[in-house]
Design goal:
The complex is a heterodimer of chains A (118) and B (112). By secondary structure, chain A is an all-beta fold. Chain A has no helices and eleven strands. The model of chain A has no long low-confidence stretch (mean pLDDT 92). Chain B has 112 residues and is an all-beta fold. In chain B, strands 2, 4, 5, 9, 10 and 11 form a six-stranded mixed beta sheet that branches. Classes of the chains: A mainly beta (118), B mainly beta (112).
């Protein structure tokens, strides 16, 4: 149990569908992150939130839309995805951002959502 | 040039061997260093967390940081088949920015 829970674990969707990924952290952390992990590639940082405020958006296509209603929950809304979006989507949290307060503490990851686009 | 370089492997060793996993980095401002283990179909799990130079030991695992060479290592003693996983290094520039910097990961297989 890592303290970061992601649902669903697996998702198969068509290119025209709309779905959402959910992440919940039970660690009392202030920062939350979405990453994309593809085979043979490094982790790609997608979005960063600190205390529900988005602080980073790394040129991610608009078909990915994040939402952070409070510091414990993070969502990734998906619509009109492409086959190249098939990947493992990981959520992580840390005490703070590296640039703030207790931000030098490590990230903790969930087990990810394996997304397949048909 | 990538911020963090890590040989992707794959690396195969016999059970009981000592394993050495390495990362190099380009920015001398990195101060905090982490190693994660990722099993198939799971998320990365924090193994070791160290600050600045020196060694840190936890059971069969030793993390080593050489800031003068911009080089970090993870040693696994008496390797077990259960150590078969992908190992990722990560690092932070303190008091700066919003992100952690990751290596690509090294795939390790320990053969019984």
């Amino acid at each position: 149990e890592t303290g970061v829970t992601q649902t669903p674990r697996h998702l198969v969707m068509g290119m025209t569908n709309k779905k959402s990924l959910k992440c919940e952290q039970h660690l009392g952390h202030n920062a939350m992150y979405w990453y994309k992990q593809s085979a043979k590639k490094p982790l790609e940082l997608m979005f960063v939130y600190s205390l529900e405020e988005r602080v980073e958006n790394n040129s991610v296509p608009s078909r990915f839309s994040p939402e952070c209603p409070n510091s414990s929950h993070l969502f990734l809304h998906l619509h009109t995805l492409q086959p190249e979006d098939s990947a493992l989507y990981l959520c992580a949290s840390s005490q703070d951002l590296p640039g703030r307060g207790w931000g030098n503490q490590p990230q903790h990851f969930g087990d990810g959502t394996r997304l397949s686009i048909l | 040039q990538k911020e963090v370089e890590q040989d992707p492997g794959p690396l195969s060793v016999p059970e009981g061997a000592i394993v050495s996993l390495n990362c190099t980095y380009s920015n001398s401002a990195f101060q905090y260093f982490m190693w994660y283990r990722q099993y198939s179909r799971k998320g990365p799990e924090l193994l070791m967390y160290t600050y600045s130079s020196g060694n840190k030991e936890d059971g069969r695992f030793t993390a080593q940081v050489d800031k003068s060479s911009k080089y970090i290592s993870l040693f696994i003693r008496d390797s077990q088949p259960s150590d078969s996983a992908t190992y990722l290094c990560a690092m932070i520039i303190p008091n700066t920015g919003n992100q952690f910097y990751f290596g690509t990961g090294t795939s390790l297989t320990v053969i019984p």
